[in-house]
Amino acid sequence: MSLALYVHVPFCASRCPYCDFATAPATSRLRSRYLAALAREVREQGEAMGRPAVGTLYVGGGTPSLLEPDEVGALGAALAGAFDVRLEEATVEANPATLDRARLEAWVALGVTRLSLGAQSLSPRGLRALGRTHQPGDVAPAVAAARSAGLAVSLDLIFGWPGQTAGLWHADLDAALALRPDHLSCYPLELVLEPEEATASWPGAGWSAVERWRRAAAASQPDEDAVAQMYAAAEAALGAAGYRHYEIANWARRGSECRHNLTYWRNGEWLGVGAGAHSHLSGVRSRRPAALPAYLAAVERGAPRLADAASDDAVDGAILALRLDEGLDLVAYAHRFGERHARRVDAALRSVEPYGLVLRDDGRVRLTARGRLLANEVFVRLIPDAAADADAAPGPSVLAVS
Ligand code: SF4
């Protein structure tokens, strides 16, 4: 069986104030040091795993489309040297403003088949509200360029941004559908207000400025009920346009589901390389440090991957399966994780059945439309320590779609 490979590229042209990823400016010095570390990690992982076959690839970030064509070529050579690359699907994430023909051709030469475009909004007001630097007019040419290169296109949209109304969200959905993407991902804007180190690599973009932006943005975000209605509006509009809602935040034309991401949601095996990249191999989750200096230091001194001590494969397996429309097959789950875990998960899911959050059908348990809106209320009951604190009836409008 072939491996799913994730490659992380942490660079961005600027820092979006709502973003929680540990990103870094794309200076040539940082890029060259990072790509050398990445190539080393790729080589060492390929050797350690006996040059396994890679069937799907996902290059995410950050903004991987910022890499220069020669850097993309070097990454492709590193991957081909370390793995038996037989790509059935390969995705690269792109910013609509940083995609030119030479870069696109370099990604196609690497084997990319899908472009995931961070449109986020198609209105000037939405992009301004999110602090994005691209323009709505950048999106259609990027889609056309990807299509002419033979790539499938996925669009990312964000809803619940400051000042957004139901009408503005419908306008974004209509504008996105007019571009006829193969796949769409729609996420609510979530603003973390606690200080963190995500801005550490950005000179002049300290946490206090980000925190001020977030507090002001949070004060003018639509309330939870309005955001829940926006999610329901996306389900209705995308369903009517022929897209299948196959995962809580993802819609696709039939056959255009992201195979790589399905490996995550089906709790399969994948290797992640690069800063902050997670892996799941032989039932064990591990990761690399997310902050760039810590990642570079770890790879340059040959440090092992960090064990992800907080994860529990049986819990993760149940939660991830419930994110998918195909739901959780309790018999298969019992075979994989044992009767004890299956009984516990079954009891937890029965406890939310009276609230209309899950339904059983054909040996599977699935979230209902209401369950997708209140997914965190279901998921928390599957976590043994948290379940004891979550025995009250599920409350209203707790949206969990990311
Ligand atoms: S482009 Fe994406 S990864 Fe980069 S700062 Fe903005 S939201 Fe974060």
Counting DSSP H or I runs of 4 or more residues, the number of helices is: 16
CATH topology of the largest domain: pyruvate-formate lyase- activating enzyme
Main pleated sheet: 9 strands, mixed
Compute the gyration radius: what is it? 21 Å
CATH top level of the largest domain is Alpha Beta
Major sheet: arrangement of strands = 9-10-8-7-6-5-4-1-11
User: Looking at the structure, what is the overall shape?
Assistant: globular
Q: How many DSSP-defined strands?
A: 17
The end-to-end span amounts to: 29 Å
| Proper CATH architecture of the largest domain | Alpha-Beta Horseshoe
* Structural class assignment: alpha/beta
Q: What percent of residues are in strands?
A: 15-25%
User: What compounds sit in this structure?
Assistant: iron/sulfur cluster
Written account of the structure:
- This protein has helices at 28-48, 69-82, 101-110, 124-129, 139-148, 166-178, 207-219, 224-240, 259-265, 292-300, 313-323, 330-337, 339-352, 369-373, 375-379, 384-387, and strands spanning 3-9, 11-12, 24-25, 53-61, 84-94, 114-120, 152-159, 183-188, 244-247, 250-252, 270-273, 278-281, 284-287, 306-307, 328-329, 358-361, 364-367.
- It is an alpha/beta fold and 402 residues long.
- The strands form four sheets. It has a nine-stranded mixed sheet with strand order 9-10-8-7-6-5-4-1-11, with helices on both faces. Strands 12-13-14 form a three-stranded antiparallel sheet, with no helix packed on it.
- Strand 16 and strand 17 form a beta hairpin.
- Helix 6 packs parallel to helix 8 (224-240) and helix 12 packs antiparallel against helix 13 (339-352).
- The longest helix is centred in the N-terminal third of the chain and has 21 residues, at 28-48.
- The protein starts with a strand and ends in a 15-residue tail after the last helix.
- Iron/sulfur cluster binds at residues 12, 15-16, 19, 21, 23, 61-63, 95, 118.
